[in-house]
Amino acid sequence: MPQAEALDRLLSAKRLKLDSVIEMTVDEAALIDRIAGRFSCAKCGASYHDRYHRPKSDGVCDVCGSLDFVRRADDKPETVKARLEAYRAQTAPILPYYRKKGVLRSVDGMADIDEVSRQIESVLKGG
Which residues of the chain have pLDDT under 70? Predict the structure, then answer.
């Protein structure tokens, strides 16, 4: 992997060492659903989701009462799919290189945020 080897040379020249590479494993269909379902209140920024956290009263923000909601343009299913395709084409190919070096660590990216944070902290602490 020329990219990974170039990074290793750059780090070595700076007398730095890559201890760990974190791979967040995900279920792509579930990830697309999570991302594409997000929306927020345009006034106060309160976060919602089509499936997992809808406003208590449809179309009315629970926090400020606004009727105006927005979705990020890059949260469209097609955009998320394109980002995942780019990851598979440009980033995933270097994973075997780091796996062979023994520094690749996988984190369950589908776990709740506290568990993902715990797993990342464990990797960073050398666990």
Answer: 1, 127
